[in-house]
Write a structure and sequence with these properties.
InterPro entries: DUF7521. The chain has 87 residues and is mainly α. It has three helices and no strands. The protein has a domain of 46 residues.
């Protein structure tokens, strides 16, 4: 895997986990449930950022199927964030 590709994925993971931590901290301070959904959503988004390469290399799948898994995980995170905004 290209080093710049790994670095970009790592930065995305770190940023999404930082947002998730801050949202969880906000939930603990305010008790507002939507903040908990935001936190969970960004955890899914961060996991989706790294899972494509892992699925592709570890399980030996095609890049299309690895991208499908990644899209499903990121979409789940987006649904949680959307849910938090509409509550």
């Amino acid at each position: 895997m290209d080093a710049s590709f790994l670095l970009a994925k790592l930065i995305t993971l770190i940023l999404s986990l930082l947002v998730a931590y801050l949202a969880y901290h906000g939930y603990r301070r305010s008790g507002e449930t939507p903040m908990l959904y935001v936190s969970g959503g960004f955890i899914f988004i961060g996991a989706g950022a790294i899972c494509e390469g892992l699925v592709y290399h570890v399980f030996g799948t095609t890049i299309a199927s690895a991208a499908l898994v990644q899209a499903a995980i990121v979409s789940s995170g987006m649904v949680l964030v959307l849910f938090s905004l509409t509550r």
